[in-house]
Design a protein that fits this description.
With 545 residues, this protein is an alpha/beta fold. It has four domains: 130 residues, Beta-Lactamase; 75 residues, Orthogonal Bundle (Helix Hairpins), CATH 1.10.287; 163 residues, 2-Layer Sandwich (Heat Shock Protein 90); 128 residues, Response regulator (Rossmann fold). The protein is built from 18 helices and 17 strands. The strands form four sheets. Strands 2-1-5-4-3 form a five-stranded antiparallel beta sheet, with helices on both faces. It has a five-stranded mixed beta sheet with strand order 7-9-10-12-11, with helices on one face. Strands 14-13-15-16-17 form a five-stranded parallel beta sheet, with helices on both faces. Helix 6 crosses helix 14 and helix 9 packs antiparallel against helix 12. The longest helix is centred in the N-terminal third of the chain and has 50 residues. The chain is elongated. The termini are far apart.
């Protein structure tokens, strides 16, 4: 009910129909810290409590009684205010925000809750609107600051993503040439000393590539762009792959690498094998890096209890995999273990100088583990070594209701080309001289005939002249880029009514968004530079079917 003018309540001890005394109501309104006002159907002020008077800079109700609200509300918000007021006079209770000008001349934001006051003689008729109005200018200012900060952060993140994408391309392109030429060099006759030099170049290049991959992966993690795949795999095969990948590095340092798994690791499971392998690669690589004597061991067992010794496999809990990676390296203090998973963090500055690296590998390992719903922890002692433990839930294919993996005995599954297979006709589109040389060298070994194009426009002209079984297309090229060329080739195929030729993007630009974009423009595969020969062989075998 609205505050009532003195003349209306004179001689009344109780407000009609409320059971509340006028004196009590007046006391409540006098002490109310928010503005309380009553307004008639014409939009004129009838009454205002002391807080409201202070808000508009008045000292007495008589000064403002009869003032029209349009004189107080910002013209931009007055149409909305009118509509809401009309609804209140139809019996609704509403809340809304609007702007008004203060006595000091500055603009203020208000939030108002308004409801109807009904006639005592006609209970169905609304005679007044009573509204509680509060100043939310500071709240609005804070909201705007947060919104501005969010927009700035999004712009900065977009700029960072664009920068990383450009850097990825700029670094990967020459790295493709370096690693490709090094691989070609290893196939020639070299002295032992020369082979040692080549090994150093190869190791250094691969180290640089790992750093680049770590930075790009961290960017994906921060942006929330890492998507986990679901496929069938065996951990035993991953153990064999890890042993193959890291044995040479461990051997060069004179330390032993022992990776063993219980018989339950032979079971087919369901999860993201690529990301699991990435986690384990980071942990084992880290262990080898910080170990100069002794050994690095990895144990793969079943069980979800941290206290369960890794050798004691819990056969009744096959869907939980317990992994421990232990080294006899330099170890860490308690303080160092507490920050070991933080980005760009290593034990101290001397660690970075002595061992290198970005300090991102363990951050990525932890993030990927937690994305899979797993847990990771570390225990270490200075001078005695470090142990990382991981717990992952990786259900068997039977538990996940998936069909068993069928083994394809065709030549494509073995990665070997059947002797009777006719040479594949391949068009390779690449503008870089070094990368063309590397690509030609790899293709010569894969039983293909190659036609080279130097840009997208030349690729279209070649395609008009002859048909190909496969097109390997660089993306960033002068004259016409790979995407525009692929689009034009698809148009030609549609006009001629012929089957689409598999087009593979061979590029240094391989962020998730870019790969998705290639698929939208008709690319069937994407191979990242630096190009690994086995990946190209895999695609060619798939085309051969």
């Amino acid at each position: 009910m609205s505050p009532t003018p003195e003349s209306d309540v004179a001689g009344k001890s109780e407000l009609p129909g409320s059971g509340m005394s006028v004196a009590r109501l007046r006391t409540i309104l006098q002490s109310e810290p928010e503005c309380v006002k009553t307004v008639n159907a014409d939009g004129q002020l009838i009454d205002l409590n002391p807080a409201g008077l202070r808000m508009i800079g008045a000292t007495d109700v008589e000064q403002i009684r009869g003032t029209h609200l349009s004189m107080m509300v910002d013209p931009r918000d007055w149409p909305t205010y009118q509509k809401n007021m009309a609804r209140v006079f139809q019996g609704e209770t509403l809340s809304w925000q609007f702007r008004c000008n203060s006595p000091q001349g500055d603009q203020r934001w208000m939030e108002q809750t308004a409801g109807p006051v009904y006639s005592e003689s006609d209970r169905g008729k609304v005679t007044e609107m009573v509204a509680i109005t509060r100043d939310i200018t500071d709240k609005k200012r804070d909201e705007n600051r947060l919104l501005t900060a969010k927009e700035n952060a999004e712009r900065a993140n977009a700029a960072k993503t664009n920068f990383l994408a450009n850097m990825s391309h700029e670094i990967r392109t020459p790295m493709n040439g370096i690693l490709g030429m090094v691989n070609m060099l290893t196939e020639t006759s070299l002295t032992d000393e020369q082979r040692g030099w080549v090994d150093v170049i190869q190791q250094s290049s691969e180290s640089l590539l790992r750093i680049l991959n770590d930075i790009l992966d961290l960017s994906k993690v921060e942006a929330g762009h890492i998507d986990l795949e679901k496929s069938r795999f065996r951990i035993s095969e991953q153990i064999a792959e890890l042993q193959r990948l890291h044995s040479a590095n461990a051997s060069r340092k004179g330390i032993a690498l022992e990776l063993t798994g219980c018989e339950q690791m032979e079971i087919e499971r369901y999860g993201d094998p690529v990301r699991i392998l990435q986690i384990l690669n980071n942990l084992i690589d880290n262990a080898i890096k910080f170990t100069s004597t002794g050994r690095v061991t990895g144990r793969f067992t079943c069980g979800k209890s941290w206290e369960n010794p890794p050798q004691a496999c819990q056969h009744d809990d096959v869907d939980h995999v317990h992994i421990t990676i232990t080294d006899t390296g330099i170890g860490m203090t308690v303080e160092q273990t507490e920050k070991v998973f933080a980005p760009f963090s290593q034990a101290d500055a001397s660690t970075t100088r002595r061992y290198g690296g970005t300090g991102l590998g363990l951050t990525i390992a932890k993030t990927l583990t937690e994305l899979m719903g797993g847990k990771i922890k570390v225990e270490s002692e200075v001078g005695l070594g470090t142990t990382f433990e991981i717990m992952l839930k990786l259900p068997t294919t039977e538990q996940a209701n998936l069909p068993d993996i069928t083994t394809d005995q065709s030549s494509s599954s073995t990665g070997k080309t059947a002797p009777e297979s006719p040479p594949l006709r391949v068009m390779a589109v690449e503008d870089g001289d070094v990368n063309r040389l590397v690509l030609s060298h790899i293709l010569k070994k894969l039983n293909v005939t190659v036609s080279m194009a130097f840009d997208g426009k030349q690729a279209i002209e070649l395609f008009k002249e002859e048909r190909f079984d496969l097109i390997l297309m660089d993306i960033h090229m002068p004259v016409m880029d790979g995407i525009a060329s692929a689009e034009e080739i698809r148009k030609i195929e549609a006009q001629l009514g012929i089957d689409e030729t598999p087009i593979v993007a061979v590029t240094a630009s391989v962020t998730d968004s870019e790969v998705d974009r290639y698929k939208q423009f008709g690319f069937s595969h994407c191979i990242a530079k630096p190009m690994e020969p086995w990946r190209l062989r895999e695609v060619i075998d798939e085309i051969r079917g």
